[in-house]
Fold this protein.
Amino acid sequence: MTSCHLAEAPIKKVAIFGGTHGNELTGVFLVKHWLENGAEIQRTGLEVKPFITNPSAVKKCTRYIDCDLNRIFDLENLGKKMSEDLPYEVRRAQEIYHLFGPKGGEDSYDIIFDLHNTTSNMGCTLILEDSRNNFLIQMFHYIKTSLAPLPCYVYLIEHPSLKYATTRSIAKYPVGIEVGPQPQGVLRADILDQMRKMIKHALDFIHHFNEGKEFPPCAIEVYKIIEKVDYPRDANGEIAAVIHPNLQDQDWKPLHPGDPMFLTLDGKTMPLGGDRTVYPVFVNEAAYYEKKEAFAKTTKLTLNAKDRQ
Amino acid sequence: MCSLPVPREPLRRVAVTGGTHGNEMSGVYLAQHWLQSPAELQRLSFSTVPVLANPAATAACRRYVDHDLNRTFTSSFLNSRPTPDDPYEVTRARELNQLLGPKASGRAFDFVLDLHNTTANMGTCLIAKSSHEVFAMHLCHHLQLQYPELSCQVFLYQRPGEESYNLDSVAKNGLALELGPQPQGVLRADIFSRMRTLVATVLDFIELFNQGTAFPAFEMEAYRPVGVVDFPRTDAGNLAGTVHPQLQDRDFQPLQPGAPIFQMFSGEDLLYEGESTVYPVFINEAAYYEKGIAFVQTEKFTFTVPAMPVLNPAPSPAS
């Protein structure tokens, strides 16, 4: 029997995280605003808690202090003995886990929205961690339909080795919200407006769901991660080529074998190899240079969600 | 400040500096590339020294370690006695002043070109000290004529009574290239390539000058700062809103009194309350949030630049 991950009970507790990366400002300022005036995120019968996850990084307007908070919510890090010697983010991860988790617990948060920006031209993006999560597929379908004609893409990071232990993963229904392009340390009004709308539609969906509204079976197109591609590097590990102008800003668009991919500092074009078309995302994301990721290859597929019964 | 009004000898000692801010990647990668392969910087009548201005900030991919290097070239920082507690950039500024200056002395480099990126939509911006810098003005004009499609705008930074504090002010003549928009920490191929081409043309211009080319007088339009406007803030000093969508990305375009400039998080628009039209630049530059600047107000003005003296053609240097 396939497991259905349908929410059977109403959703009770929702968290909205900002500042998981301290220099991704849209989430920081939306959460700070909602902490002052939370009217716009309230829905009847639902507890919605805005929360700054990495306040020290936010204060310094940097991605992280010691290590990337959005990569360390695995059992090993969450289980380490608390001590002042632990990296700041590991200590912080444990605090967040105690406040909002554990997954599926009595008082735990059902849904966590984690707000992010990217320097890549990805527009409005929803990040899904589990392809069988029917509740989230329905939610994402609702958000995409409500935002149209503004495009909203779904990035599926389910993968045996490439999936990472996100801050939001401590909830039963983790939702990544990623809007770009926006430079680190910059707050753009247009990007703020887009992220604000995504949250509004998400909360409206939860409210309709709790009220018993019917959501017929639906399908959404998603982009599933295949592999990450590093920059070509020289013998010293320095970057030897940049994202080709033809690929720059072309997130979600098909890249065919033979299409330009990188341009060396000497002016030579390096094309995509292999035999299949891929859909690049996170093309030229500033924070991924150190993670050795120039872009991620995805494949397009359709996910179906049953109705609630 | 005794920068000579106009060079009367060939320019022999030239430097190009990148990584003055360690997260402005076009200059970082160009400087690192030229340190390995300097050939493309050489010309017949002079050679150019590439310099990675802020190595520690570059290694950390940050704007600076302790203090903004491009604010550190004042006589107060450069000439005060070194102490062990000096910020990294103060020590580094003194080193660069030894290498490329000393500022305001006869031993300073003839020309320094400093490479920058901005998150603002400033396109190709040429930053020089003032309209009195005849050599720099001719250079800017040359770049504008060579690349009409780039619409190079000239920004003249010197404010009356203020001492210069930027890196290229240590040389007898200086210019900064400010290309955007590009996020910090990102290397875009199109901007990198444009920066590289512009550097080559700057060096070509110096070669033309050294070889005795005539550069007649001309009229030029430029922008100079008249003030700055900060973001709207709460009592605690946090942001209360951000740059309005109608101002965002409109660098060098006229801003009229009454036009919206900020959008508050609570939804209202804040309008520009100045008394006259200004031309905003550095609109929503990431590095300026901490300096309390949402945009720089400039005025546009036109001036005449006199002809440059024509040199006798320069022989190739022995070195």
Q: What stands out?
A: The radius of gyration of chain A is 20 Å.
